[in-house]
Amino acid sequence: MRERLAQDVSGLPTWAFESKSTPWWGTLGFMAIEGMGFALAVGMWLYLAAVNPQWPLGPPPATLWPGITLTALLVLSLVPNWWCNRMALRQDLRSVQIGLVVMSIIGLVAVALRGFEIAYLNFRWDVDAYGSIVWLIIGLHTTHIVTDVGDTIVLAVLMFTRHARPRRFSDVTDNVFYWVFVVVTWPPLYLLIYWAPRWMG
Amino acid sequence: MTDAAVATSAGRLRDTALGQQELAARLDRLWGTPRGILGWLTTVDHKVIGRRYIATAFFFLCIGGLSAIAMRLQLAKPESRLIDADLYNQLFTMHGSNMMFLFAVPVMEAFAVYFVPLMVGTRNIAFPRLNAFSYWVYLSGGIFLWTSFFLGEGPDVGWFAYAPLTEQQYSPTHRPDVWAQMITFTEVSALAVSVEIIVTVFKQRAPGMTLDRIPVFVWSMLVTSFLVFFAMPAIMLASTSLILDRLVGTQFFVSGTGGDVLLWQHLFWFFGHPEVYIIFLPGTGMVSMIVAAFARRPIVGYLPVVLSLIATGFLSFGLWVHHMFATGLPQMGASFFTASSMLIAVPSGIQIFCWLATLWDGKPVIRTPLLFVLGFVVIFVIGGMTGVMVASVPLDTQVHDTYFVVAHFHYVLIGGAVFPLIGAVYYWFPKICGRMMDERLGRWNFWLAFVGFNLAFFPMHILGLQGMPRRVYTYQPEMGWGGLNLTATVGALILFASFVLLLWNAVRSTRHGVAAPDNPWDAGTLEWATSSPPPPYNFARIPVVTHREPLWAERDELPVAHGLSVERREVLVSTITEARPEIRQASPEPSIWPLLTAIVVGIFFLGSIFTPWAVVWGTPPIAVALVGWFWPKGSREDET
């Protein structure tokens, strides 16, 4: 078929931030899928609570301090996370490097605190269905923390190499975006794991 | 100084100044899949991967069909000793699981992987490496399931694997694990493809392809991808919980310790009912494309058709409990799910009336693709009517677990998805292979399929009403079911023959078919604007869309965009609603990492059937593979 030159796109940039780029949409897509996973896990908890005459079943509620500490850390981490985003938008390499290192350290501390949370749950996954669903929910969220921390560390290293080209700033903002998802999905799960059994029991 | 040199001196070499031949040669080098085994393993071309997906899905259709034939031969007469109860249990489980997870969903996604980028006018799918990865994971899942079957470990718990039968106490072998982990493989693959399709449709449409110019098949795949997003996490969560129950002793579905067997059914059907529409909606998209092309006019009621697709998507999440009417539900719940089950017939009905109106107002050319569409309308309407019947609780409790339900869902699924699919094979074969399929064989194919299908499945309605239950490996002569069962078996053999004929037609046409021009059906959408088969880069220059049927609006010459690089792979990324181009984004080059990642992910999945420690030793290789995948290699795509 013959062609007629109708539109010149040569002046367009080769990369962009956030919703202009495809990786941002891909990240959003995986958030939707994983968010649905969280919602369904919460649904499982509520369903099991509804069909059992007593809920929680047997085990005592989890010890509070590790959960409170981690929740506080996650909420506070949004500040350096937001700063990292701002520096990436400004394409300020030195600041982005600092931001990513800080976020990597925060992430590692979060993983350690999650370890304490699990150690202080006070029950095993196989004790009854309550134990199983709590372990499933916390396991699901732990997978997200670990994945994002891994991603942040790799990106931090990358930004210290010759590959730290301008388009990588867009990857940094996507990484920031995903950490926000990891953080905002946590409070409902936190309430379900720590407070709902206390209110119901 | 040549024009090309001028363009280079101003920066990168762009396509603007190049003549057709030089442009094609450069793009061919840039986008072509390298030759040899490494090229084969590393390709990220959506058409190569789409072809693989289609071929693999049809292979699974073939062995899934053979498992059905084996069951039909066993049931052809009472008290047959051809197949014993244990093998029969495995066969019906393998048949259902294979057809749903390895054939029906992947084959629709396969067509989308091949055609959505062409239809929206881009050069590759979004996230091409993820696309390659998804194929390898899908293939691994299929090989895993069938290898297990041939090793005597084929799942035997039904395609919906109800607890408590699947719990360790009642199924101490690895058969349910095989089923559950096959789910993980195929769902990872389906979710990945859905992300790719949504992002391709949202962000990679050709300039000017506003929302109301998107081809209906693309709309159908967009809605389907969203269904996958929100339905498949349910089955992944369910199958993971099941594996945990069996492997580490969690108590999700164990009654004595607070678990609940109906939790399984809720999770399964929250996925399982949208699954029907994940298979059916792409079929309707195919029908809309074929009807418009062969009625020689645009589809009547584009807007109602698209809105029906979206409405069906939403409603499909509100009827899962109608699969559970026999479990004893509160009356209010039963009434709600009866109403919603009947309601979903409305958008499907709207689509059917739009297609009929298109044919009525057009000048229909009856070719094989349209024959399959007409067959679809007849069969699907019958399936839809029995669907309204079983939506009613009193009737459903009578025919639950009988052959009436088997008849109903085969009418819906084969009628609603496989007939449009075969029509689509005839319709798009020339584009994929560059040759026409044989029309005479096509008509034989259709009539064998139509007669065979109805002969095989219509008697099952009567068998069901007579009380013949599903999933029995034999029956006594005094039940009086022998004659109808024999008829169904003869029908199944005729239906199978129709697929053999399809295969023969496809293989023969690949070599000896008449060479296909770019647009053999004189259709209106963009996939027909390029050569048959398309070059690796799809379009030498990206089309600029001015109409819903671009090729009917611009018959003499196609308006195109220019200014893309010919030195690195670039695609146009545009705005969601108006499709206004915003970026010339780099598109990934071939890579071995998706395959390596799929291999280590497969080892992880396989290992976690046997030991929970697989999570510990299986994760580091996956992390290494992912870092290898994403770490920049200094290639042209990473330069800016």
The residue-averaged pLDDT of chain A reads 95
> How many distinct helices of chain A?
6
Work out the radius of gyration of chain B.
25 Å
Task: Determine Rg of chain A (CA atoms, Å).
Answer: 21 Å
Strand content of chain A: under 5%
Main beta-sheet strand count, sense and barrel state of chain B: 2 strands, antiparallel
Terminal CA distance of chain A: 73 Å
Query: How helical, in percent, are the residues of chain B?
Result: 55-70%
Please state how the strands of the largest beta sheet of chain B are arranged side by side: 2-3
The total of helices of chain B stands at: 20
Helix/strand order of chain A, N-terminal first: EHHHHHH
The best one-word shape of chain B is globular
How far apart the termini of chain B lie comes to 27 Å
Brief overview, please?
The complex is a heterodimer of chains A (201) and B (640). Chain A has helices at residues 22-51, 64-89, 93-119, 129-158, 168-184, 186-200, and one strand spanning 2-8.
Architecture overview:
The complex is a heterodimer of chains A (201) and B (640). The longest helix of chain A is centred in the first third of the chain and has 30 residues, at 22-51. Chain A starts with a strand and ends with a helix. Chain A has six helices and one strand, in the order βαααααα. The radius of gyration of chain A is 21 Å and the shape is elongated. The mean pLDDT of chain A is 95. With 201 residues, chain A is mainly α. Chain B is mostly helical and 640 residues long. Chain B contains 20 helices and three strands. Chain B has helices spanning 3-9, 20-31, 36-42, 46-75, 85-120, 128-150, 175-203, 216-247, 261-295, 302-315, 331-343, 345-361, 368-390, 393-399, 403-433, 439-465, 482-512, 550-553, 593-610, 614-630; strands at residues 557-562, 570-574, 581-586. Chain B has a two-stranded antiparallel sheet with strand order 2-3. In chain B, a hairpin with a 6-residue loop joins β2 and β3. In chain B, α6 (128-150) packs parallel to α19 (593-610) and α13 runs antiparallel to α15. The longest helix of chain B is centred in the N-terminal third of the chain and has 36 residues, at 85-120. Chain B starts with a helix and ends in a 10-residue tail after the last helix. The model of chain B is unreliable at 1-11 (pLDDT under 50). Chains A and B meet through β1, α1 and α4 of A and α7, α8, α9, β1 and β2 of B. β1 (2-8) of chain A pairs parallel with β1 (557-562) of chain B.
